[in-house]
Amino acid sequence: MRRFSAEYLEHTRRGMWEDGRDALADLELSSRERVLDVGCGTGELTRVLAAETDADVLGVDADRELLSVAREESDGRTGYLAGDATRLPVDDDAVDLAACQALLINLPDPTAAVRELARVSGDLVAAVEPDNADVRVASTVDAEERLEREAREAYVDGVDTDVALGDRVREAFDAAGLVDVRTRRYVHEKRTEPPYAEAALRSAARKASGAGLADHRDELVAATSERAYDDLRGRWREMGREVVDAIGAAEYERVEYVPFDVTVGRVS
């Protein structure tokens, strides 16, 4: 399984729930008593589930460093446990909802994880998974749209898991023997506009230094070549400097459209 930093998870997972919780409607949270968040990372979804229900909520992740961050941010209503998504340290039928966010796209065998979620749940299994191949960017810096698309296409080709599962998550649910499987698509909009938040300033600085692109260097090189990556990084840094200048003039705006699918199924 791929590993991520706490900063990366905060950027990609937390913002999804700041605009609303409509995407969680099919999880029937009001009726839940025991909930498990698998691959919880720093606990973004875990805390949302706790806020939306009176249930006991437990997060599980294989990365102990991420779990330490999750525990620091816990308000006491959530618990955390170290464990592998395909070998959960949880008894059969221990919860009535087993959920995950951006977990299956990072696993070589998503169906194995779904089977494990179905084993520990006595009722519902849910997966919130982005479709990284279908992300779109609109920016006042023209080069940003073009370079984001170029980098994304190479990343999808170079990564060793299916990061564009989208609504095909239901295939893993079907293979795991879940019934009444259904999927709904949502699009999360990440907006950057004046006045700029501190996170936007950090993001612009990382573009200008090339650090953001370097996070995915291995995948980009795998899909292209060292020379092509170096060329892309040079153009990326130049674009980043344009972004920094536009922010300084309060003229920069950007919208990232991130589609994600919420798939639910019942244990038969």
From TrEMBL:
Keywords: Methyltransferase, Transferase. InterPro entries: Methyltransf_11, SAM-dependent_MTases_sf. The keyword Transferase applies. Pfam families: Methyltransf_11 (PF08241). Residues 36-120 form the Methyltransferase type domain. GO terms for molecular function: S-adenosylmethionine-dependent methyltransferase activity. One of its GO terms (biological process) is methylation. Coiled coil: none annotated. The keyword Nucleotide-binding does not apply. This is SAM-dependent methyltransferase.
